[in-house]
Fold this protein.
Amino acid sequence: MKKDWIGKYMNEFLKADFINEIGRTADQMYQNGWHERNSGNISYLLTGSELDLVRDLKGIRVIELQCEVKDLEGKCFVVTGSGKYIKNISRDPLLNLGVIRVLKGGKQVEILGGFKDGGRPTSELSTHLLTHQERLRQDQAHKVVIHTHATNIMAMTFVHELDDRSFTRSLWQMCTESIVVFPDGVGVLPWMLCGNERIGYKTAEKMKNHRLVVWAMHGVFASGSSLDDCFGLIETVEKSAQIYMMTLGKKMVNTIEDYQLKELADTFEVNYKKEYLDV
């Protein structure tokens, strides 16, 4: 099967729109300074005609999961590799990306291609799959999960209370478009050991009500219906966090009041968390 992958599928894989989009997104995040060394990871659910590329592939290796994702049985994902650098994805997708399929029972995945050096999926794979499972329960259009070390969001976790409501309110008040872009707010987790099933299940629990979860002193896990949607969500939250950090400790003369946030949400007809506002 390895020969078939290299001969029959490599060119199609490299030319696929979603591979080029993953590379462009990865490059932009690296240029934003969010991905030092081998930090961060991406997973992309293959749907529709995208599955034609991998439909006939047989598994090369099987990997045990730290979690159970029965809802994802048979689903295929493109994922970044463990120890790989985000900045290198666009240069060598076949080395830094792989295609996996979730096996029956949801406790194993098989590698279908990519990882040409014999590598394996990101150490955060369990959190990615648990997030995909939960977000698909909430939104059938869901496709993408990105984990990144967005600088100002990380900085904000050192100086702000770590609860969903207060963290979200502070972000909404920093930028007019924020409540429109993420009306569901953000979920916040305290510092936890990464790369295991505990943080995966905790993140998935927050994903029931939020599309972005802040990991204190670490980064964010974000979801979206496309790479642009997911990246744009992170970008907007990060901009709000940047303004928060720029104004921290300074005399605040003006702010966006709660009644104004409500006016914004009502005008743009977004279903915001009404319990987060004092109106």
